[in-house]
Amino acid sequence: MNWDDESAPVTTGDGDRLVEAAADGEDRAVEAALRPKDLGEFVGQERVREQLDLVLKAARARGATADHVLLSGAPGLGKTTLSMIIAAEMGAPIRITSGPAIQHAGDLAAILSSLTEGEVLFLDEIHRMSRPAEEMLYMAMEDFRVDVIVGKGPGATAIPLELPPFTLVGATTRAGLLPPPLRDRFGFTGHMEFYAPLELQRVIHRSARLLGVEMEEAGAAEIAGRSRGTPRIANRLLRRVRDYAQVKADGVVTQEIAAQALQVYEVDARGLDRLDRAVLGALLKLFGGGPVGLSTLAVAVGEERETVEEVAEPFLVREGLLARTPRGRVATPAAWAHLGLTPPGQGSTGPGQQGLFDR
Ligand SMILES: Nc1ncnc2c1ncn2[C@@H]1O[C@H](COP(=O)(O)OP(=O)(O)O)[C@@H](O)[C@H]1O
Ligand SMILES: [Mg+2]
């Protein structure tokens, strides 16, 4: 099994954006090197870990192939890592692909028919698979069989093909988008939660040890607090802090060094980055806290609508800084406090312009 080869396209989304300019080949390789290799090394997610442990142990005891597993959760929480751990715990090889990579049912048929007995098939972003492929997958999951269609039009015939038993591990950022027939065919669904700061601290310590970075407890806590509950972000911030500590100090990551470094990379004490603060700043300073329409807000920060909606907003909403309402985006009192501004009517900020541009 090759831990470093993640052939699936890298997911982009909330968790993947931070310091993305720096997410080069070296970083990708480091990320792979930091992946926990068994359940014991996997930090946090107690419930999923315990449940999965039972599923895998029972399958091993029966000498059977493990049931299909669905992992859902935000980017960077450990879905890919867990799929590799499942294969490792079962002593099985793993094949990695993704929904968007499977355009035609034939692509899936080719992959399925080349699986060996007990192999783990990791299907990332499973909600983005094409319809015909999805229907083929139903049968493969349930009966370990596919119908390969030969020919076209009225003369086309379906040739049934037996598959060896395999374990499908599906990953999705949006379990809600999966059609129920697909969801129901998984024997086990693990929902990954955001990590608590103390858990991220453990992730950071572990990674620091693997990278040979000298890390003080308070330094790890500082990074953890800015990592948005996401191990991938914690690891990325750690690498940037390491760079800073090497160049500007003696390499030891103290709380002060971590805070200074992350200020340089424009990651604030709550984990907001430049884009998040731009969105929030525009909402407060230009639109008096809203409500303001998404398109207007996007134009104000010079970004695509989708970028604001899919990249910045989920975290701002989760942090209770922004609310999506039918009339538009609205800042919460916490948003004013976070940017150190005073809401209109309570002091000295400029005039609110809500309703001027749209909705
Ligand atoms: N529970 C965990 N413990 C330690 N490191 C983790 C954990 N979950 C994720 N990571 C780290 O975070 C990074 C991203 O994890 P990944 O499995 O690629 O997330 P996802 O597939 O959900 O987007 C990996 O490099 C991995 O080292
Ligand atoms: Mg992944």
Explain what this protein looks like in three dimensions:
It is built from 14 helices and nine strands. It is of the alpha/beta class and 359 residues long. The protein folds into three domains: 44-191, 3-Layer(aba) Sandwich (Rossmann fold); 197-264, Orthogonal Bundle (Helicase, Ruva Protein, domain 3); 274-344, Arc Repressor Mutant, subunit A (Orthogonal Bundle). It has a five-stranded parallel β-sheet, with helices on one face. It has a two-stranded antiparallel sheet with strand order 4-5. A hairpin with a 2-residue loop joins β8 (322-325) and β9 (328-331). α4 (105-113) runs parallel beside α5, α7 (197-211) crosses α8 and α7 (197-211) packs across α9 (231-248). It is globular, with a radius of gyration of 23 Å. The model is unreliable at 1-23 and 352-359 (pLDDT under 50). Residues 269-359 are annotated as: Head domain (RuvB-H). Belongs to the RuvB family. Its EC number is 3.6.4.-.
CATH class of the largest domain: Alpha Beta
Principal-axis shape equals: globular
CATH superfamily of the largest domain: P-loop containing nucleotide triphosphate hydrolases
Bound molecules: adenosine-5'-diphosphate, magnesium ion
Number of helices: 14
Distance between the termini: 54 Å
Which architecture name of the largest domain does CATH use?
A: 3-Layer(aba) Sandwich
Considering DSSP H and I runs of 4 or more, what fraction of the residues is helical? Answer: 40-55%
Read across the widest sheet, the strand sequence of neighbours is 2-3-6-1-7
Mean pLDDT: 88
H/E order of the elements?
Answer: HHEHEHEHEEEHEHHHHHHHEEH
**What is the total domain count?**
3
Q: Uncertain segments of ≥5 residues (pLDDT<50)?
A: 1-23, 352-359
Strand content: 5-15%
Helix-and-strand structural type: alpha/beta
Total DSSP E strands: 9
The CATH topology of the largest domain: Rossmann fold
Radius of gyration: 23 Å
Largest sheet: 5 strands, parallel
EC number: 3.6.4.-
Organism: Streptomyces triculaminicus
Keywords: ATP-binding, Cytoplasm, DNA damage, DNA recombination, DNA repair, DNA-binding, Helicase, Hydrolase, Nucleotide-binding
GO molecular function, one term: four-way junction helicase activity
